[in-house]
Amino acid sequence: MRVGGRTVMVLLLALLATLLVPRASLASNQPGTFVTMTSEPGDFVGQGQHRFFHPSNSSVTITGSRQPSETSLAVRKRQRRVRASGIVTPEGATGAVAVQLTKKVAGSWVEVATKDTILDDEGSYAVRFTRPQRPKCRLLAYYGGDDVYKPSRIARKFRC
């Protein structure tokens, strides 16, 4: 039986692939942080190679798009205090909410006070302010976002 050069090359590639696959599957069964990449022969990226990346031989960064969030805001007035409360959705949002109380002075909004608060396990927040004496007030709640959710904000105008 006579074997041509092309047939020998195909057999060598098949043998090489057989040797690489078990090593790759052993590597991927190890515990820890790693990324494996396999490409088909002829692929522009990888060109048929298998790669195993881990912290000692590489640095891998994965980025993605964050999901939108929505912040609600309720205003409750008492004789001497104003309470701002709300929820950041969807469920699972974490981090802080900054709530700013402003009042209208000579046609412009002027900051009275700002308070930062951490979202609880349900994504709720609440802060209290001393109630200003001006007739027009505004509360702004700003959620700065987290690794999963984008920032969101809301404003409510009310009579002080």
User: What is the CATH architecture annotation of the largest domain?
Assistant: Sandwich
Number of helices: 1
Number of strands: 10
| Unreliable residue stretches | 1-13, 18-28
Tell me the name of the CATH class of the largest domain. Answer: Mainly Beta
Assess the beta-strand content as a share of residues. Answer: 35-45%
Strand count, sense and barrel status of the largest sheet are: 4 strands, antiparallel
Structural class designation = alpha+beta
Overview of this protein structure:
The protein has two domains: 5-53, no CATH class; 70-159, Immunoglobulins (Immunoglobulin-like, Sandwich). Helices cover 15% and strands 42% of the residues. The protein is built from one helix and ten strands, in the order αββββββββββ.
Q: How are the elements arranged and paired?
A:
Blueprint: H1 5-28, E1 35-38, E2 50-53, E3 70-71, E4 74-77, E5 81-89, E6 96-105, E7 108-118, E8 124-130, E9 136-143, E10 152-159
Antiparallel strand pairs: 1-2, 3-5, 4-5, 5-8, 6-7, 6-9, 9-10
What keywords describe this structure?
160 residues, alpha+beta, Immunoglobulin-like, 2 domains, four-stranded antiparallel beta sheet, 10 strands, disordered N terminus
Compact description:
This protein has two domains: 5-53, no CATH class; 70-159, Immunoglobulins (Immunoglobulin-like). The chain is an alpha+beta fold and 160 residues long. The protein has one helix and ten strands; from the N terminus they run αββββββββββ.
